[in-house]
TrEMBL record, chains A, B:
Keywords: Hydrolase
SUPFAM superfamilies for the chain: Six-hairpin glycosidases (SSF48208)
Protein name: Glycoside hydrolase family 127 protein
Organism: Paenibacillus albus
Stretches assigned to the Non-reducing end beta-L-arabinofuranosidase-like GH127 C-terminal domain: 545-654
């Protein structure tokens, strides 16, 4: 049986159709449009990335172009294009046009464009699979698609269809003699979007071509260490990064056994696999997507949504191996998992996918950005101990701390800053999706939207102070307001949500009113029950202590705090004790309050804990047990807000006092 | 005030004077002489290390010599020399002579010898500080000294004094134009021993020369990354390894602020600093030694004694940063710390030094060797999770697990196997030391010994089943049996030791008999109180739960189990539950029993713990807290004995149930 064919085909409501003016995400989009878009551009200008597009770099000049620079610029262009649609800005617009001018002038007559290879190694074009050319091409194509949607202009899109045609010619029609698939996946996604934007099916077919080819061509195994065999001796550490799993070359896509390898490559690739499986009704590919989804979200994901646990090779890591102090959790990988989730939802609507998108939005991805929108984390720590050497020996280790405890303005490999830029700018596309006359409401974001259902147009207005507050109100109007069905997501973190219309309950404590149904985490409400009334959803947000699966040794004996969709953490600046030694009491008497963090009021948590008293230790490193404790009150802040004030220790997972002896038998 | 001059000068009783025939270490020395010495030699023969000495390797042949191979062979020679003294073995003796023949034939007329450079790059001799030439020279010299002590022959020693003379000429008299100190310290130690063996003071002066020069010559900063400055961007991970601290080049020896950098280099260097500070009465150097000792043992040492916490650069790591799953804890670094401790004791007798030697002997160093003596750990895990992927997804990750859970027969860089060989072979030298008429008794090892005190010869016989049993008996005889003072170490792990003579108490519960005194962890007993009686020491060995300092975040909420000097661990093969999730109960009802592990009876510990029941988890990765527990009984084995049976999880640190709420206030 063809599972895909039997499934719903969902259409996301595009970012253009959803207007986010204020509220939590409205503020972030304003920061994005006023700060981040400039911060990223300026750093790229300063580091030579923008001007590299002129192909005028010469030996001896500073800022030699790098093979992946075009992708950084392209992601900025994509983000800027989204932003311009809602936030017209002459200066940004000119910068964008100026880069397009440079690309137009620099593009090779074949359609090829890459500022590194055209400038530095023109004779090496498409000879080295590790050199990111198809990856940068993908990002350029995505930027062109965004530019087209945002402005209606086909100029940039035209340039990039020429590039795509050239790639088709080299890699599909003629067959490149050096390698056959992308060293860093991304182009597969881009070609799919190029098909959507142009209606030219060849591009989707080329995307499928790259997916089908992957893992089948021995020439592509450039990252291999002895084909994954154990060497007799332990290999050098650096070699460990590069085996067949690194770029998902260990098997053809349909046979990939587990989520593995470089996390961003993996998430982008799985996303494109989902795209193609949906459009081609390819069950085998979809089964692989389900397997990779389960493996990555049920065994290899941090509670924040972070998904690259392994610094070696920026990799997904082994099952249940989620080190906190050594977490990698690249911002791009969280964004990539949101892409994957979005596509899985489009095949089969299920709240598990929207839950993961929400987890990334508020935690894994958002933590990558400072509150002022101008600095960035590449890797995201779940535990940070920067102060160690200072407060003990008085000597600061000169080595750069691992993991990082301060966001930076730009990176040598600066993929994350423009990625969070474009993610926030296009956030509207995660809110709604439609299928015939059903409207799926997946994210609770203060916004207004308009969309087309089978029976006509529909306008939806969301009013909420989510995630700080637990209620969301909806009003609908339009042609479809009679025949539509609204499917509201019941967040996975919420145990007793309630929904009412003008005070009449539709769902309460899981008892449903007539005509209302609950399926795969969505509450289906006929619009006829709503009419011109106000739907009020209430998602109670008590402080919740989460445990990790017992197989996650790192988190055994610990809890992570959540309230609503937000993961919380303790940061030294709020807590004048050794927070890494703190033990949350059996009954911590949780309370919430509003606290201003870098000018932004947030709901913070307060609770009771205990820490070992220091006086009994003197200078000893180890001593017999039975320490005394003193009680402390802790303050936990949203994880995304950490590292915006004075540097210090931080931890997401906290020790928890348990009463085990009493609880047994 | 000259602190060194005011201090005692202690002379260790040599390994030749202490005969260890049976008991715990007698068995290990037998394994060493029958298994390890052959295992190491055979692997070195198979891998080409032995034959490399012929300098006959040619391009295209297998097994190209490596720059550090001579040090591997030299350490084997040193170990073999010690072994032959007590365990004559014609075959080993011939192998040793055969290598010396090769060296004699191959040595350059200048005195220089290095099988790599003479064969492969004769024009590059002494041009590259990172190339280990002075390090291999050091080990060759140490081997020659051992060979001389063991056999009385001066043949090998003569070859190596010529080499030392050549080094003196190149590096001190003329001044090498490329660099001025060892890229990997070791030669400093060796030259000191060469002085002791030959009486030629020039060698000690050359040792001091290398110590004084270090950290002062800009040409030596070859490991530097921008001289330790933070780069604006995070540097590549591999660069992190190589900064000025890597080879202790960040400051002149006397100014070194903290124990840092490559742990083996550090420990060998600190040891030589102690040697020189003692002989020259150099207070400033001694102060540095004290500072480095405190920093390494009180802030940067695993409970097992392991001292390289940081895989990046095989480095000592940051203060209180002691990851268990990612521990490095190189076997050689533990041995190096024993060297350092031995020398610090020689300046000032204090049980803290002998305690650390004991910790390394029974734990950090010994874990490097399999029970059959034929395979080895290079890095020593404190927590191992090899089974993860197998028992969860059914998919085994093809990447080599970090850290290692299986000892290996040989390594590409195979320094640890011959190091543990020579350490165990010469273990006798850690047992006793003398100063005038005082005999320090530092280690409790079934043995007999003879030594010279100021008032004459003394024979000492120790009878004990330590560390399995808590009593040790001593008998003394000889000229000095009247005037001597015996100083018995009271182990730091023991809280209520007692000492008696023929049943009459000398110390009990810290009350001392007349004429007996306790100082710096040693109980001073005049021989006159002993006469021809039997001294019985009792060191009660209850199971002890150790906590780590609250600043060690990794071990917060956990305990490590010790009994006597042995650190224990849980290994999967003895425990049919998820031991990494186990919580030791408030009252674990500890009991001991004898268990046979790979043919060797050992005292193992049994106790009560609890683990979370799995049924409540299904496939969830995170869920709200309040898990149910079930009671389990655990078995803990000595840490050194792990990884000799079926592979599986292992952990030294265990979660501990605490009753914090009740204990506060």
């Amino acid at each position: 049986m063809n599972k895909i064919a039997a499934m719903s085909k969902i259409t996301p409501v595009t970012w253009k159709d959803v207007t986010i003016n204020d509220g939590f995400w409205g503020q972030w989009q304003k920061t994005n449009a006023s700060s981040t878009v400039n911060a990223v551009y300026n750093r790229f200008k300063e580091t030579g990335r923008i001007d590299a597009m002129k192909l005028s770099w010469k030996e001896g000049m500073p800022d030699m172009p790098h093979v992946y620079w075009d992708s950084d610029v392209a992601k900025w262009m994509e983000g800027a294009a989204y932003i311009l649609y809602y936030h017209p800005d002459q200066e940004i617009s000119e910068k964008l046009d100026n880069i397009i001018d440079m690309i137009e002038a620099s593009q090779h007559e074949s359609g090829y464009f890459n500022s590194y290879f055209q400038t530095i190694e023109p004779d090496k074009i498409f000879t080295d699979r590790t050199a990111h050319e198809l990856y940068t091409a993908g990002h350029m194509i995505e930027a062109a698609v965004a530019h087209f949607y945002s402005t209606g202009s086909k100029r940039f899109l035209g340039l990039m269809t020429r590039f795509a045609d050239h790639i088709e010619s080299v890699f599909k029609i003629n067959g490149n003699q050096y390698y056959s698939t992308c060293g860093h996946q991304e182009l597969e996604l881009a070609l799919f979007r190029l098909w959507q934007a142009t209606g030219e099916k060849r591009y989707m077919e080329l995307s499928k071509h790259f997916i089908d080819k992957r893992g089948t061509d021995p020439r592509d195994r450039v990252f291999s260490v002895k084909n994954g065999e154990y060497p007799a001796d332990p290999p050098l550490r650096c070699q460990l990064e590069y085996n067949d799993t690194y770029a998902q070359d260990d098997a053809p896509a349909r046979d990939l056994p587990a989520a593995a390898g470089h996390a961003v490559r993996a998430m982008y690739f799985y996303s494109s696999m989902a795209d193609i499986s949906r459009e081609y009704g390819d069950d085998e590919l979809y089964e692989a997507c389900l397997r990779l989804w389960d493996d990555s979200t049920l065994r290899k994901m941090y509670v924040t949504g972070g998904v690259s646990a392994d610094r070696f090779g920026e990799a997904i890591g082994m099952a249940y191996t989620l080190p906190n102090a050594g977490s990698y959790a690249e911002t791009c990988a969280s964004i990539g998992m949101a892409f994957f989730a979005q596509r899985m939802f489009s095949i089969k609507p299920d709240a598990i996918y929207a839950d993961i998108i929400e987890r990334q939005m508020y935690n894994g991805a958002l933590a990558g950005l400072s509150l002022d929108g101008a600095s960035f984390f590449y890797d995201n720590a779940l535990q940070s101990v920067p102060a160690y050497n200072d407060f003990t020996t008085g000597i600061h280790d000169k080595r750069l701390p691992f993991p990082h405890y301060r966001r930076q303005r730009v990176f040598e490999c600066s993929c994350c800053p423009p990625n969070i830029l474009r993610f926030i700018a296009a956030l509207g596309e995660y809110v709604y999706a439609t299928e015939n006359d059903t409207l799926f409401i997946s994210q609770y974001i203060q916004s207004s939207a308009q969309m087309q259902l089978a029976s006509g147009a529909l306008k939806v207005k969301q009013t909420t102070n989510y995630p700080w507050q637990e209620t969301v109100s909806f009003q609908i109007e339009g042609d479809a307001a009679v025949k539509a069905t609204l499917a509201f997501r019941v967040p996975g973190w919420c145990t007793n949500s309630s929904v009412s219309v003008n005070g009449t309950s539709l769902m309460s404590d899981h008892s449903l009113a007539a005509g209302v149904s609950l399926s795969q985490g969505y509450l289906y409400v006929p619009a006829s029950l709503i009419g011109d009334g106000v739907v009020t959803l209430t998602f109670p947000m008590p402080v919740t202590e989460l445990e990790a699966n017992p197989l996650v040794a790192e988190d055994s004996g610990k809890v992570a705090l959540m309230r609503g969709p937000l993961v919380y953490c303790l940061e030294a600046v709020d807590n004048g004790f050794n927070l890494l030694d703190a033990v949350v009491l059996r009954d911590p008497q949780y309370r919430t309050e509003i606290k201003d963090i870098s000018g932004i009021p947030m709901v913070v948590l307060r609770g009771d804990a205990a820490v070992r008293t220091n006086d009994q230790w003197d200078k000893a490193l180890y001593r017999t047990g039975g320490s005394k404790y003193e009680k402390v009150t802790f303050t936990a802040i949203p994880y995304f807000a950490w590292a915006n004030r004075e540097a210090g220790d931080m931890s997401v997972w906290l020790h928890k006092e348990a009463s085990i002896t009493d609880a047994i038998g």
